[in-house]
Amino acid sequence: MSDYSVRDEIAAFMAERNWAQFHTPENLAKSIAIEAGELLECFQWGADADTERVQGELADVLTYCLLLAARIGVDPDQIVREKLAVTRQKYPVDKSRGRSTKYDKL
Amino acid sequence: MSDYSVRDEIAAFMAERNWAQFHTPENLAKSIAIEAGELLECFQWGADADTERVQGELADVLTYCLLLAARIGVDPDQIVREKLAVTRQKYPVDKSRGRSTKYDKL
Amino acid sequence: MSDYSVRDEIAAFMAERNWAQFHTPENLAKSIAIEAGELLECFQWGADADTERVQGELADVLTYCLLLAARIGVDPDQIVREKLAVTRQKYPVDKSRGRSTKYDKL
Amino acid sequence: MSDYSVRDEIAAFMAERNWAQFHTPENLAKSIAIEAGELLECFQWGADADTERVQGELADVLTYCLLLAARIGVDPDQIVREKLAVTRQKYPVDKSRGRSTKYDKL
Q1: Fewer CB atoms near the end CB (10 Å): N or C, chain C?
Q2: In the predicted model, what is the mean pLDDT of residues D17-42?
Q3: pTM score
Q4: How close does chain C come to D98, measured CA to CA in Å?
Q5: How many CB atoms are closer than 10 A to CB C21?
């Protein structure tokens, strides 16, 4: 995320605890999947979910995503923008409008 | 993420395709877990991963996280900051420094 | 799994609690992903994991897999065998021996 | 699963390819989460899913679960049964009947 103060806050939090040693790209990828599972648990039995819990779990996924971006030295906004450009090619407006069909089935 | 231009770009991309109808919080939570699995696949058999592929998968997770944040009306930076404050309480520096132990075991 | 007594035990457990109503294929697929995340959490920071905890989480994934198989009316052993036959075609011994390379890269 | 012929078939398949070397408990836990994500993808945008695709993805999750059980030396049926006994204590019929509420909220 491009709010540098947030990224700096996270970096300081980890530095204080000397936790960078645990944050290999592989461990961070596992952590993102683990937290994504906890976010999904908010919706395990249906669409109704506790909003506060959803916010907390989404924050955990985002935090690990920012840590991984920092660890591999990429700017989160930039990679999202780059990927959006690729997706734009895969899903032309005229073909994909109003449809959730995957690009290889369009 | 607080780079409004990225959030606006994503919103415009979805609006053009009339895809907001598919982006219920539940579907977005599923999508985050699905993309987190693809990110993890970069590390399925070990720590070495193709950096470009990791960037692309991380971008997908981030994009769905931003869509969910927008959908539930929260600011990504703010929820990350709020969660960091909670985690600070759970993991005091003196107890957690240099340890990956979970708070309930500290 | 083909141990009918286990499948029957699970079915009886759910029937007693009238929980089948929650076990749609979609909810079970979410549940499998959620439990898979908890299993992964045993290995979040490294290869060493508490064996008892791993067993418990693996049991949860397996239980939801058996529920989904029953719900869609397939025999777990049979679908595993059928998939193994497909994988055999994708990964000929001579090409894949000792390599973790994905079939499309072989 | 207790169908020994299936377990033996999987073991033989892996032995032929000399793949056991990749099947550490950690890599198998990652693989289960990855395949669980692919299973979930069948339901990404709703409850309707392609049954054949669901069967194939469920088979992949099950196969990695059987490999992990074998790798840590446990019987899949036995751990499922043991976990069911624990769950029985957490969810007494009278309290949990017809409700998807988590045990700690009952």
Answers
A1: C
A2: 97
A3: 0.96
A4: 5
A5: 12
